[in-house]
Design goal:
single chain, 683 residues, alpha/beta, Rossmann fold, 4 domains, eight-stranded mixed beta sheet, 34 helices, 12% strand, binds adenosine-5'-triphosphate, binds magnesium ion
Length: 683
Amino acid sequence: MHGLPPVDFRAELNDEQYAAVTSPRGPALVLAGAGSGKTRTLTYRVAWLLHQGAKPWDILLLTFTNKSAKEMLERVEDLTGIPRGQFWGGTFHSIGQRIIRRNAVDAGRNPDFTILDQKESEQLFSEIIKQSDGAFIKDKTNPKAPVILDAYSHSRNTLRPMADVFAERLDWMKGGPEKLVGFCNAYEAAKKERNVCDFDDLLVLWLNLLENNPTILEHYRRRFQHLLVDEFQDTNRLQSRIIDLLASEHQIMAVGDDAQCIYTWRGADWENIVAFPQRHPGTQIHSIDTNYRSTPEILAFANEILAHRPKVEGFDRRLKAVRHRGIPPTVFTVGDTSQQAKLVGRKILQLHNEGHALADIHILYRAHYQSLELQMELNALGIPFVITSGHKFFDLIHVKDVLAHLRVIHNPQDYVALSRLLCLLPKIGPVAADKITKAAQAVAASEGRGMIRALRHPSVLQKVTEVAKDDFNDLTITLEDMLEGIENAKKKPVAVAPSSDLFTAAREKHEEKISRTPAETVRVCIEGWYGSHIKTLFPDWKDREQDLTGLIGFAAKFEDLGDLVAQVVLLNGESSDKKPEPDQDMLRLTTIHQSKGLEFPVVFLLGVADGLLPLTRAIDEGDVEEERRLFYVACTRAENILYLFAPRFAISGEGYRPLDPCRFLEEMSPDCFELADYAHRRL
Ligand code: ATP
Ligand code: MG
């Protein structure tokens, strides 16, 4: 393009990157390990194309997050002076939305259609079920709208017949999948009629548009002379089909790393990468093995993780280091997860005193609940932090629901918490909840019963709508069980056996505690009504169950239920409501999934133990390879320092649970890391 400032492509790229950036028109696949400059290659490719005369509007840049598209186009703007607003860049969903809006009528909508968020889609789906089959909702053994919708979404994203996915995922449902298929068809009609799209429609309608309208397809094929796709390993079938259609003239460059595929649970299919050359004949494959991000020590460690993959199904490669030597990754073995939190706190302060900014340190973990004890410790130490992966633990709906149980048990006059619980029951809203509460208050006053026991009185039950009666019954039984546990524990004095070994003593103390309140109270709650309720309510109930199990461990730190409830309020107040100052130096906490594509000077990885990473669920299901890739993604985020923390015990639903050493670490050569044993040290 005329008037662009010169860019010294040769000097700013290595040979492999340069070859990819300047490759001739045609399909190209850049397969490269973590931190080898894939994203950088795509950025320079955009600049290169502009230098070759392409216009910004000829280019379509698809990335995993809008943030990464923004960053890449800002870099292009720096390199070429062309404002990023002139490009089409973003996630598949954001681009799909633009294209559907421009061709709304052909896509089956009016141009002013609105997009439903997840909650709204679920509400609409519930409405549809209610309208088509009232009895279905009433039968509480049937899956709820979010669960059905999640399976439907999976079928759409993987382009599989919905009946197959229903049969596979909801095989426990009575009466076969036909009914569910009917609901989905009615849901489709309702969205069309109301002129709305759900999230998946942004891809599905886009694909339909291309498949059913040859002129539109032709228009976009011509329009997007150059397709660039980052993080290609995590695309699903639906996305890959859209790309294949648009890139019929093979003007595509896809960039990815099969070893970093971490979204198969959402339908990502790394076959998309493996089969790319067959689908796009004449594909030039570029591989880049030089890693610019990490020290040689960190890379040797990362390479070792992959070296022990049982069968290399993808493209095998090892990362080559160019940076100067640094310090080896260190594995800190610790007694339990609470000792882990203490040691992490101490190491952060140590690094901070040595001159590292807090913002350079990122704490990664496999699942949200694994950061709970650390959040407490950071509050205690006064270390400011932000959680960059979604909600704070105590803001999660299911955690709040369980806390509402605890609040009611602790203070039966906490009507806000009671109302929250009652509103979880079918057909009960705040007004009905209020009636039930008033009836229980009357019984409690006239019969001298406690509020919890009053809930089970026939005159209170009368106020409960018929459809909610079973749930109400189960809920009140659970509350009573929780209360009884506390009353019994108060009667029993607790003796902690003296022990000479620090480690054994700590374990015994924890076991003793867990058999008492409030950890036991939390366990009774989770095993009661709410535990079964979440299975019908949330498609990701397994993850949520795990969070709740983590809550038992958290509760084990407290001797008194009141302290636990108060601490949660304080923890939330200190960490979630306080808006960070823009310039404040803060530590970052995030899940491994959310750290994808990013890089940080210092990485602490928590919970490196079987049961935490890999997660118990993956071990039970016999497929730990995605967990290995997560381990790889986590470690390859680190530029200079990588600390791993390996607890030997976790406090969980089963009490003080021994953890086996992380199987991935066990396989690796001990030469590639240092071991620091803190398991028997007092911190
Ligand atoms: P990931 O697999 O994590 O997505 P990636 O392959 O996309 O990583 P980039 O994020 O593009 O890698 O690059 C990693 C780091 O290396 C960045 O800081 C980038 O600027 C730097 N880098 C890449 N190539 C070069 C190069 N030729 N010269 C100097 N620095 C480079
Ligand atoms: Mg990248």
